[in-house]
Amino acid sequence: MRTSDLPVIDCPAEPRERGRVHGETLRAVIGEKIGRWHEAIDVAYGASSEIFLPRFLAGTDFRSAIARHAPDLLEEVAGIAEGADIDAETVYAMQLMDEEWWFGKSRGDGHCSSLAMAPTGDGPTMVGQTMDLPRWHEGAQALLRITEMDGSETMVFTSAGMVGLNGVSGRGLGICVNTLAQLGVSPKGLPVAFVMRRALARGSVAGAAGFLRSVGHASGQNYQLGDRYGIATLECSAGGAAVLEIEGGRSLHTNHPLVSRDALSPDIPLHGSDNSRARLESLRADLAPSEKAVVDVEAVKTALSACRAGGEVSIEPSPSSPVTEATTFGAMVCEIGDAVELSISAGPPSTESWRSFTLRSA
Fold it and tell me: What is the per-residue DSSP string for 132-167?
């Protein structure tokens, strides 16, 4: 998808209606995506979707945690199903992307490269990432522009039919995420998509970090947080939340834990893959503190567009690659200062343009 074609869905505050607008507007895209998803399940797990998905839902109980911590988002999911005219259980299962990966014992440690930059005298807080997903998601990029009860806007980048991947609020909080497949999981924890949306609703780094420390997590995931006053990074898993110490006003992360030691099993190394470590070094090379170079939003976009061999931050798709192979589904950068700005690339930023939005505050 070209960034200029990225659909921006204006969603009301009421949860079920918010979901209905999302589902109805993207009905055709969601239906096509589900077809590709079912094909990918067979490739990834060696079982048809008719066998795998009922087994997945019967073997887990995420719904109880969602109902306890985010009942409004369950309403939103029901609204998506109604608007898209898709079976409700299928739409519910579609929200559980990271959880599906570990339940199906997906190979590899994932992708996504993320960063958080503390505010300086010359510049705002910045939070950004590449969102790398299996190639079958391609064409489902969408941006939800949600009007909150207080009149402010929240913008959530998503794959059609999901409640969200990452986002930023006009109240002044940005959240980016990256998978930590090496860490502990729970079939009764709160899934990543719901953790992200609920943390984003807290409106501040302190509020979001407090929520991340208090909730039981379903999946290993790193959360990059930023507001007008500072940043925080938490590596979360079934074993709890480990807080990363921020050095030099910047936090850079890929797909291996830097502080958490909550290993999924004793035989899983926590140092990650060569690719994950190479992507981290790529970010460090481009965003290293320097008296000569100002790390502004253009420098961040350049870092997210890097394609160093063996450590490509921006992963360009190959038409001949398997549908389960990762590509950069999109990239985002939030600038949070007096104003809140969002830049989105609907695809690899190394080949795709950026589109900018200014969010309405309360």
Answer: EEEGGGTT-EEEEEEEPTTS-EEEEEEETTSS-SEE
Q: Which two tokens stand for residue 355?
A: 């589109």
Q: Is CATH 3.60.60.10 the right assignment for the domain spanning 113-358?
A: yes
pLDDT in tens, 308-340: 999 999 999 888 888 899 999 999 999 999 999
Question: Would the pTM count as exceeding 0.90?
Answer: yes
Q: How far apart are the first and last CA of the chain?
A: 32
- Residues 6+ away with beta carbon under 8 Å from 189: 62, 65, 215, 216, 217, 218, 219, 238
- In the chain, where the domains are located: 14-103, 113-358
Beta bridge partners of 142: 158
Taking alpha carbons only, the member of 202, 179, 171 closest to residue 130 is: 179
Sign of CA dihedral 206, 211, 213, 218: negative
- Could you give the CA distance from residue 9 to residue 27 in angstroms, rounded to a whole number? 12
Tell me if residue 158 falls in helix, strand or coil: strand
114/131 Cα distance (integer angstroms) = 9
What would the two tokens of residue 171 be? 């109240």
